[in-house]
Recover the amino acids of this structure.
């Protein structure tokens, strides 16, 4: 017997399929470009191997499960801006919000290292 899948059941089927495609659901809240940028940078550091791809993908999933995207984005911005030169760059290295954001990201990365590498 062939069953007809009507339009009313299709969205539920599609949602369940997408949920199974990313069971952790963690990095789903992060923009794709951010996830890819992280994985590529991680692979550059850890080798261009299949194992590095899997470990780095796991790593961003763990980070995403710990840090909301806005916290991750804030920490990455402070990190990038702290590398600039000039008088004003010090506020990106030494201010309390910068230190707190970097610490939060470092803790998430340490947890990711334990779970994934």
């Amino acid at each position: 017997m062939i069953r007809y899948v009507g339009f009313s059941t299709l969205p539920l089927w599609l949602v369940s399929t997408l949920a199974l495609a990313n069971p952790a659901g963690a990095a789903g809240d992060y923009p794709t470009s951010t996830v890819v940028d992280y994985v590529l940078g991680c692979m550059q550091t850890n080798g261009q191997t299949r194992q590095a791809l899997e470990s780095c993908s796991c790593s961003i999933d763990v980070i995403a499960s710990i840090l909301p995207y806005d916290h991750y984005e804030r920490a990455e911005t402070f990190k990038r801006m702290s590398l600039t030169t000039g008088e004003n760059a010090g506020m990106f290295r030494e201010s309390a919000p910068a230190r707190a954001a970097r610490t939060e990201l470092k803790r998430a990365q340490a947890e990711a290292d334990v779970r994934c590498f």
Notes: The longest helix spans residues 96-116. The chain has a mean pLDDT of 82. The two ends are 49 Å apart (CA to CA). The chain has one domain: 10-116.
